[in-house]
């Protein structure tokens, strides 16, 4: 069993080199992930759910960062040039990759989501 604070600490270490990611950010991402997976915010997480909680929170964090960097620009003058247009796209690509990993791990754990469709046998055709 893991506490929310332990999960936030682990997630913060994963975002160690990313600028402007603070403890409050990772706590919010963990909170959302816990709620999405049916946990209360004060509830400990089972060992078999920790990876899914962290992957979802990591995906949420990368998505938030891509939104924060969406306004980045290109600048050129005679002496220097700065091009940060691809930063947001790089984060979006990483978020897509994380989402696919999350979905794969969720399916491996037997936790499929989404609608299920079944057709019942007609009673008169037994």
**Count of extended strands:** 2
Overall mean confidence score, pLDDT: 87
**First-to-last CA distance:** 49 Å
**Tally of DSSP helical segments:** 4
Summary keywords:
126 residues; flat
Tell me what the structure shows.
The structure is a single chain. The chain is mainly α. The chain has one domain. The protein is 56% helix and 5% strand. The protein has 4 helices and 2 strands; from the N terminus they run H-H-H-E-E-H. It has a two-stranded antiparallel ribbon. Helix 1 packs across helix 3, helix 2 packs across helix 3 and helix 3 runs antiparallel to helix 4. The protein is flat, with a radius of gyration of 20 Å. The relative contact order is 0.12.
In short:
The chain contains four helices and two strands, in the order αααββα. The protein has 126 residues and is mainly alpha-helical. The model has no long low-confidence stretch (mean pLDDT 87).
């Amino acid at each position: 069993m893991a506490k929310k604070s332990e999960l936030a600490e682990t997630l913060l270490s994963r975002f160690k080199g990313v600028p402007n990611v603070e403890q409050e950010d990772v706590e919010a991402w963990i909170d959302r992930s816990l709620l999405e997976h049916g946990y209360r915010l004060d509830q400990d997480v089972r060992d078999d759910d920790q990876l899914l909680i962290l992957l979802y929170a990591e995906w949420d964090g990368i998505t938030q960062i891509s939104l924060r960097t969406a306004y980045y620009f290109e600048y050129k003058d005679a002496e220097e040039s700065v091009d940060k247009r691809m930063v947001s796209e790089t984060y979006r690509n990483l978020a897509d990759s994380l989402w696919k990993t999350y979905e794969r791990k969720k399916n491996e754990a037997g936790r499929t989501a989404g609608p299920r469709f079944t057709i019942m046998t007609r009673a008169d055709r037994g």
